[in-house]
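Could you help me review a protein record that somebody else here produced? Do not assume that whoever made the record got everything right. The record follows directly below this note.
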Amino acid sequence: MTHISEDDLKHKDINWVGTWGTSIQPVEESNMPPAPGLSNNTLRQIVRVSLGGNQLRIKFSNEYGNSDLTINSAHLAVSAGRGSIKPETDGVVTFEGKRSITIPAGKTVTSDIIHYCLPKLTDMAITIYFGSMPSALTGHPGSRTTSYLMSGNGVDSISMPTAVPTEHWYVIAGIDVVADTPCKSIVALGDSITDGRGSTTDMQNRWTDNLARRLQENTHTAGVGVLNQGIGGNTVLSGGLGPNAVDRFERDVLLQSGVCYLIIFEGVNDIGLRNSIDAAWDLIKVYKEFISKAHANNILVYGATILPFGGSQYDSSVNEQTRQTVNHWIRTSGEFDAVIDFDEALRDNDEPTRLQSIYDSGDHLHPNAEAYKRLAEIVDLNLFTR
């Protein structure tokens, strides 16, 4: 693995495309790292990329920190499972030619360009040996993937048998690639259902993961990456966890690399928390704003219908009326460039206000792993050849 300076490439037309991403947020107290903590210790985090490529860069964030964050050293390698790496793939990540960097509070940084043979659909290990850390952390609690925390400097360790496991991501925000062929990416903007609640830890079987596999298996869409920008408990407008979709739209959609497509699959928490038909009109207004902003940036926008939640904590007659109103608008308004009818795919035809039992994770709100497979199956891949 070799590093390429910006000067080497400044005269070339570099078309960066996102291959992996996550929506960063303030880390709540209940989701902070376990002992021994991050300061002066090593964290290995596993992510599944979508696209492969020969040049890449990694984004690290201290956006919600309350003081400087120091990375003493960072490595990238192919994961061998259970916290181990394939040593022949291991290499150092640098920042302006240096191994260490201090990230000010409120900032996100991007690594130097790295020449690396990144395989598509591969679990990659990003290992960071931290220095001083802020008490307020930036991360993504719903990783659905095990990270490995060990005391001291283990940044180049092949395995981590004594590491403490934790199912959260911290500091890492995205990976971009320059692929051999023209590529583009999809942003999936959503809540816990996009984040993968109900999927299987370490199995990479969220609906976005399944969609990425389908895209890579299809010759005509093999150059399309998938960026999961879902946050558990998130809302479009207000009242949920993490920055709401309005506040994060520019960062998580418009500023992502190589985005040509946006799937909006969010609104169920707004409906459930508001318990008012007015939530429908507020959501529709914001959907229109999102579409307008995306179109201004040459991004096609696909609307996904909101899933049934009968029997869940959100179940009420007014909330069901609101859901039906929103879904009717998504299907018939013509505002979206296309509609992906997730509701139709998972609802119980005998009780259409409920998920089919085979797709219910058990809380009557979140789909299970089989449902996430089904959601990916019903997406028309031709939408991503436009």
Notes: The radius of gyration is 20 Å.
